[in-house]
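Appendix B, example 12.
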Amino acid sequence: MGNIADLMLRNHPSDDVPTDILAQAKAWAKKGLEVIQVARKESLSQHQTCEQAFVVMLYNFAMIKKVSQLLWFC
């Protein structure tokens, strides 16, 4: 889900992403973050793969938030 969000934004300069594409990318990143949070919460022990996925999804979500802020200021 994070890869989908990243690929959607990769075709546009960070200051020229259409708002509908940005909204879709944000929704994919948010859903990916929700999925990994549920997996971490339901797991009986900590798994390295889940922790790495969580970090990647946080990064993707933060990147999309940053792009949306850049568009807002332009």
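Helices lie at 2-10, 19-42, 48-73. Residues 54 and 64 are 15 Å apart (CA to CA).
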